[in-house]
């Protein structure tokens, strides 16, 4: 999943911070010997089912016979008209559904098939929906070999649409998936983010092992919430690092550049950040660094308030000082 | 059936709330681990195996269950596993692990912030990814298609469905973790409008944030505990994924799971995981639940449906009936997938 956008918006009072989290991903699926011809058929305004050993015709088609477990190879064309075997009504369509006005969902047994296909019916009004109603396919004007090549069904007993072969067999289908969430932080994380908006780095100490976590979290070694607040310095030591040489989508800096784990003074767990201000091949373990903050006028409840870390020029920390934090 | 070798020795749950806690679930899990382990008389370091049920689709990020391991305190290193299903299936994995002799104790937990996204839309993605999910059929509409089949077939009535809601909400008044409860009138409920014809609000479980944890012990470790519910059988089965491939009014996988788990025989109470009223009626028929059996004294999922822990909570609630002495023989049921596609049955006994 690709994270498109997270930005934490601060509130004056205590409730935990939350923010929109919108993710999207195009699922690309190969189709194989059954769904490939089925999707190719839809592109060509033709519906193909297949026949299992018991003689039943399945639409959508099955890849394997549930009784014999054999591949189902006997493809059968069925009619673009059918009968509603069950239905419901949607007053407020959700994002991504076949219609953006009130519509019916239905299980539809196409003429020539023995099983039912799930799809939308553009009936206009709930009162027009009923079990046993006759419907026909409304084809999408642009068809690519996808279940959405059926735009929806509409009331009607027959169809004048003619199938037409339109190119190479379809072997891949792509389905964009977009989901919207509200991500909610813990109270401790919220305190950390609010302190960041004031230019402070806040940690919390585990009451059992006494380690200081930045950002605060339930101690993963002891399973107890950390409690005592500890302000840590914005200076620290590079424990380990990598040189980014590979370009990728959404990259903000030109490679090569360095992403490092930085153990802030007073903390027991390092944070990841950028090291800039010197050539990538000069960054080393043990190097002392300091935070470079953005203009305070732009600070929000975000780790992005720190633009990057820069070398301080202090002598390197000895390995023993950070070997427990790698 | 042979002598039971594994018992439930502790259970705890978080209150079911319309919106609560972080997306990660860590802060919700910490106190219920503490309570479940205290009831079982175990320290977290005594637990041989941890197994959870949750979903990245609820959290909106990959490997979200790894985050929740923080709540355990995983040091020294632990033995841990996860299922992307209701934690009732994690329970099954832990049960088998103990039977196999690879663990003597286990904690099973489920969690999820169902309110973080639009749950009924997110659940469309559990459907077939080629012919169904790209249409985004929401989970309430899918359940409504099943309810319509049952109504058309004369198997349920809208009144019988409303009666399930009224009984569940009345029982939930005694459950401090329930989200929906109280006294309601069947005729008043039937006067409400449809949310997805033929389903009304009372026919659908609420969207709930929550979590549950259950402690298992095997052999002598179980016999040491004064409060225990022996597991005499567990089984789970699955029906075909295609909604138009099966008779939606029958639940063959529940029937088969019930038979394999040894459900037949005198039963005092059963906790059914039915997120929709008509599904309780279908499950009662599929499992052959008799008239004398008390159904969902907790109020069931209709009164609090924390995703990925509601099924586990049914087993926990049934186990509590046995551990408290209110029941000698009880059963917990869990479902997963659309329209009761997957079903698990667990039979619990006092001795």
UniProtKB/TrEMBL annotation, chain B:
CDD domains: SCP-x_thiolase (cd00829)
UniProt xrefs under InterPro entries: Thiolase, Thiolase-like
Domain of life according to the entry: Bacteria
PANTHER family associated with the record: ACETYL-COA C-ACETYLTRANSFERASE (PTHR42870), NON-SPECIFIC LIPID-TRANSFER PROTEIN-LIKE 2 (PTHR42870:SF1)
Name of the protein in question: Lipid-transfer protein
């Amino acid at each position: 999943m690709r994270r498109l956008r997270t930005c934490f918006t601060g509130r004056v009072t205590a409730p935990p911070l939350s923010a929109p989290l919108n993710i999207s991903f195009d699922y690309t699926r190969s189709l194989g010997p059954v769904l490939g011809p089925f999707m190719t058929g839809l592109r060509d305004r033709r519906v193909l089912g297949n026949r299992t050993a018991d003689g039943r015709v399945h639409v959508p088609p099955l890849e394997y016979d549930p009784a014999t477990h054999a591949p189902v190879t006997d493809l059968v064309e069925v009619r673009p008209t059918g009968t509603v075997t069950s239905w419901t009504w949607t007053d407020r369509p959700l994002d991504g559904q076949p219609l953006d006005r009130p519509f019916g969902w239905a299980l539809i047994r196409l003429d020539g098939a023995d099983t039912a296909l799930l799809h939308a019916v553009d009936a206009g009004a709930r009162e027009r929906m009923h079990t046993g109603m006759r419907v026909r396919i409304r084809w999408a004007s642009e068809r690519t070999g996808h279940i959405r090549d059926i735009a929806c069904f509409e009331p009607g007993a027959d169809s004048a649409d003619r199938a037409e072969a339109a190119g190479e067999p379809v072997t891949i289908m792509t389905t964009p998936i977009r989901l919207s969430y509200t991500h909610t932080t813990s109270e401790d994380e919220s305190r950390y983010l609010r302190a960041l908006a004031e230019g402070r780095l806040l940690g919390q100490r585990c009451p059992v092992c006494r380690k200081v976590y930045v950002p605060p979290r339930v101690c993963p070694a002891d399973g107890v919430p950390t409690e005592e607040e500890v302000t840590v310095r914005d200076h620290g030591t590079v424990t380990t690092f990598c040189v980014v040489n590979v370009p990728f989508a959404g990259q903000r800096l030109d490679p090569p550049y360095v992403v490092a784990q930085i153990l802030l003074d007073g903390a027991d767990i390092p944070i990841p950040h950028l090291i800039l201000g010197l050539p990538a091949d000069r960054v080393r373990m043990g190097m002392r660094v300091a935070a470079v903050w953005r203009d305070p006028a732009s600070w929000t409840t975000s780790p992005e308030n720190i633009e990057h870390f820069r070398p301080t020029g202090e002598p390197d920390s000895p390995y023993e000082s950070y070997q427990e934090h790698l | 059936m042979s002598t039971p070798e594994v018992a439930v020795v502790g259970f705890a749950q978080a209150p079911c709330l319309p919106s609560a806690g972080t997306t990660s679930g860590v802060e919700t899990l910490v106190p219920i681990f503490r309570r479940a382990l205290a009831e079982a008389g175990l320290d977290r370091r005594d637990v041989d195996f941890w197994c959870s049920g949750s979903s990245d689709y609820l959290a909106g990020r990959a490997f979200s269950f790894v985050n929740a391991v923080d709540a355990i305190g995983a040091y020294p290193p632990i033995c841990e596993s996860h299922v992307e299903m209701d934690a009732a299936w994690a329970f099954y994995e832990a049960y088998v692990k103990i039977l196999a002799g690879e663990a003597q104790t286990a904690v099973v937990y489920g969690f999820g912030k169902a309110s973080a996204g639009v749950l009924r839309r997110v659940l469309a993605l559990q459907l077939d990814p080629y012919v169904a999910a790209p249409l985004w059929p929401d989970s309430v509409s899918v359940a409504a298609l099943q309810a319509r089949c049952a109504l058309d077939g004369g198997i349920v009535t809208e009144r019988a469905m409303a009666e399930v809601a009224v009984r569940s909400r009345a029982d939930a008044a005694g459950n401090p973790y329930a989200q929906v409860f109280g006294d309601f009138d069947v005729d008043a409920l039937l006067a409400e409008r449809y949310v997805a014809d033929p389903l009304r609000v009372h026919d659908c479980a609420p969207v709930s944030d929550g979590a549950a944890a259950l402690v298992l012990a095997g052999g002598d470790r179980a016999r040491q505990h004064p409060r225990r519910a022996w597991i005499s059988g567990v089984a789970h089965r699955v029906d075909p994924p295609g909604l138009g491939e099966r008779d939606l009014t029958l639940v063959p996988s529940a029937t088969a799971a019930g038979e394999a788990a040894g459900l037949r025989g005198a039963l005092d109470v059963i906790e059914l995981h039915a997120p929709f009223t008509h599904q309780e009626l279908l499950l009662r028929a599929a499992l052959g639940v008799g008239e004398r059996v008390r159904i969902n004294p907790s109020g069931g999922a209709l009164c609090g449906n924390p995703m990925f822990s509601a099924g586990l909570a049914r087993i926990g609630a049934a186990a509590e009936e046995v551990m408290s002495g209110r029941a000698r023989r009880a059963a917990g049921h869990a479902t997963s997938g659309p329209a009761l596609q997957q079903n698990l049955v667990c039979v619990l006994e006092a001795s």
